[in-house]
Amino acid sequence: MADSTPSLLDNFFSDLPDTPAPIYARLKQAIAHKVASGQWQPNQRVPSEAEWVKALNVSRMTVNRALRELTAEGVLTRQQGLGTFVAQKKAHSALFEVHNIAEEVASRGGVYRAEQLQLLRGKATVEEAVNLGIRTNQEIFRSVILHFENDLPIQLEERTVNAVLAPDYGAQDFTRQTPYVYLMQAAPMTEGEHLVEAVLPNERECDLLQISESEPCLQIKRRTWSGDQIVTAARLLHPGSRFQLFGHFSR
Amino acid sequence: MADSTPSLLDNFFSDLPDTPAPIYARLKQAIAHKVASGQWQPNQRVPSEAEWVKALNVSRMTVNRALRELTAEGVLTRQQGLGTFVAQKKAHSALFEVHNIAEEVASRGGVYRAEQLQLLRGKATVEEAVNLGIRTNQEIFRSVILHFENDLPIQLEERTVNAVLAPDYGAQDFTRQTPYVYLMQAAPMTEGEHLVEAVLPNERECDLLQISESEPCLQIKRRTWSGDQIVTAARLLHPGSRFQLFGHFSR
DNA sequence: ACTTTATAAATGTATATACAAGCTAATGTT
DNA sequence: AACATTAGCTTGTATATACATTTATAAAGT
């Protein structure tokens, strides 16, 4: 389970505000950012409580609280006697966290492939501006991607992206890497919402998804925040016969 | 916001094991049970940290941890200077927690009504036994209920219930109280899972839901645990034109 | 009557300390 | 060489203490 311990504990708070939030919260935020941005990989070892105490000159209980809460939130895992580690990505996954369709397909043992139908930059329309919480003249990206599992369409993805927060979105090749992966490192998600409903897609969409016009689809509209700004809004269309959403909850 | 403070702090742990779990965990469990079973109502005041300290003769930090974690889990809400209170049921609700359709309808300002189409006791079939994780000769209840919002069908609910865990299920009147409410006090839910998909219902179901046969529906299959036993398995059918699932997530 | 000020109560955070319990690796013994 | 023991590091929990912040209430002043 163990790897090596990250080094730079000094100046750990360098790129974070040092006034408003309590110590434990800032430590949580700093660690969560390392994990969300991929700088710390799953199963990698996190500095021990004693190391944090020495490096940051804070009480062990303060460090303990930060690590304990991150563990409760599924960011870290801890093992008595061993240490603290970055959690596996969807270990005890929260609800309905199908953010990366490529991983989802791979985890089922399927072959994943994508076609990029559209990717262009422009100014936001009124509807898009409302969706993203920005002004209408602000730059955005629009992309349409069709995702395949074993050469059968599994998801049609229409996405609008805030170009200020993710400036390199237009330079990505989404047949190689899903938007989710790029967006997570460009502007790590802190919050999100989704709206799920059953719909009958229009003729063009049925054509793309290779389904009959009477086949119902799961439509998921999702918006994700980074801090207090909306990074992206997406509409995901899944053929009902090829896709189910699974969720698990406790307490 | 404040009500009156519950009295019996003595013997609070009376009906709980007193050996294995740490103090803070037992306190959490005891409070969560009071809330889940409805003995403590939303917005009702919970004893202050100081009161718990005096009553249980434990450290304030221990009580603080229990209350703080229950707050993070959405069971309680706290306000500095004021006190600790039982949280509103779906305050910052977890994901897709549409457990009680009556509340859902009411929160939208709609008029709720239900028709009980079936309610009978019997022995579990093979499929039902597998679903509930029991043996095939064990007693179960089966119920079919149609829920209305403003006199339009909003949910068709087929439910199987473990009769051992919820023995009085058959005596309930589900036109007055949803199964969820009874089941929560009979065997408080600790875990659950759901499977969401888009389907086209059969002729009878379309008839009941008053929709055309080409209208897609959201189908939710849900199982809920109490401890390590499955209490109930339900299949919920929602007309796509009248129902959406909304979820919100953080971190 | 109204405003201001003090006071008390409640939660929020931080620290120091202590001991329990789990895991690993070094050490010692047979 | 094989095994048992021990020491050291790790997380887990519990306590006592201190001070900050927020809120409501009571008292004092105008």
UniProtKB/TrEMBL annotation, chains A, B:
All residue ranges annotated as the HTH gntR-type domain in the record: 21-89
Pfam families: GntR, UTRA
GO terms under biological process: L-histidine metabolic process; negative regulation of DNA-templated transcription
CDD domains to which the protein is assigned, alphabetical: WHTH_GntR (cd07377)
Entry keywords, A to Z: DNA-binding, Histidine metabolism, Repressor, Transcription, Transcription regulation
Alphabetized PROSITE patterns for the sequence: HTH_GNTR
SMART domains documented for this protein: HTH_GNTR (SM00345), UTRA (SM00866)
UniProt-listed InterPro entries: Bact_HTH_transcr_reg (IPR050679), Chorismate_lyase_/UTRA_dom_sf (IPR028978), His_ut_repres (IPR010248), Tscrpt_reg_HTH_GntR (IPR000524), UTRA (IPR011663), WH-like_DNA-bd_sf (IPR036388), WH_DNA-bd_sf (IPR036390)
Pathway the protein takes part in: Amino-acid degradation; L-histidine degradation into L-glutamate [regulation]
GO MF entry, a single one: DNA-binding transcription factor activity
UniProt function note: Repressor which binds to the hutP region in the histidine utilization (hut) operon. It blocks the expression of all the hut genes in the absence of inducer.
PANTHER family, sorted: MANNOSYL-D-GLYCERATE TRANSPORT/METABOLISM SYSTEM REPRESSOR MNGR-RELATED, TRANSCRIPTIONAL REGULATOR PHNF-RELATED
Name of this protein: Histidine utilization repressor
Native species: Maribrevibacterium harenarium
